[in-house]
Amino acid sequence: MTSLADVARQLACLVPLLALAGPAPAADELCPRAIATRQQLDGDLKGWESYTRVVKHVLRDVQMFEGHPSGTVSLHPDEREQEGKPVAQWRLHAEAEYWVQCGYSGTSVALARRLPPGVTRCEVAWAPRYREVEALRCTKAGEPGGPFPARLDTAGRQAAEVIHQYVSRSRSWKRGEYRIEDKGSQGNLAFYWIVHVDDDRLPHPGGGKSFAVEYDRDKEEVVRELAFQ
Question: Alpha helices of the chain — where are they, by DSSP H?
Fold first, then answer.
């Protein structure tokens, strides 16, 4: 059975990629959606005249590595479906050195660059019907995650800042020690998970340091704290 990671290697990026949250590089900086190359023959063919033309290649493959891709094995992502769309997610350690490699259709040329320090999660999502990359992002601990793909609006940024202050008062955690995940809303109440980085190694939420909160959008404050069951 073909895995989501295998399918990801066959994708063409036909739609704009979303910007990454926070100060991490924009999606196009992480993986350009297309590149152009000029190819040439390896040697001459008697009786033939060769010429070159510019060929455009679209993004088909995104892989993560611990260390430079030239000397390491790619990391296997966690795979899931979200809102009917396949998503691959890599959970990373903030203190380690990670690289992203971008592969393109019809060429052996690949691009690689080191991720910014502190990145703890990268995700790629695609539209399953057309097998095209829909979004790509990386986030650091303490930055809102939530349903993917998603953009953080002004109200979301305000909620994140209030929650950061709540966590600082109630736990004395530094922002790099946790992340905020948007879990939807009901009326004026929004629900967030505060996931400690130590709990990323657990098979499921609960039993660790992480917790959830209810945030009142009208009052712009945390109104209740909830424990994971």
Answer: 4-8, 27-30, 154-171
Structure-block tokens of residue 122:
């990268």
> What's the full length of the chain, in residues?
229
* Whole-number Å distance between alpha carbons of 69 and 61: 14
Tokens of 220: 């712009």
**Tokens 């790099």 -> residue:** 176
Token pair, residue 199, equals: 């709990």
Q: How many CB atoms lie within 10 A of CB 203?
A: 6
CB within 8 A of 132, min separation 6: which ones?
A: 11, 12, 13, 14, 15, 126
So where are the chain's domains? 4-41+50-140, 154-226
Residues 6 or more apart whose Cβ sits within 8 Å of residue 117:
94
Per-residue pLDDT at 155: 60
> In this structure, which topology does domain 154-226 adopt according to CATH?
Nuclear Transport Factor 2; Chain: A, (3.10.450)
Residue 96 · residue 66 · CB < 8 Å? yes
* Under 8 Å between Cβ of 79 and 5: yes
Question: Is-contact 224 214, C-beta < 8 A?
Answer: yes
Q: Confidence class of residue 170 from pLDDT cuts 50, 70 and 90?
A: very high
pLDDT of residue 229: 58
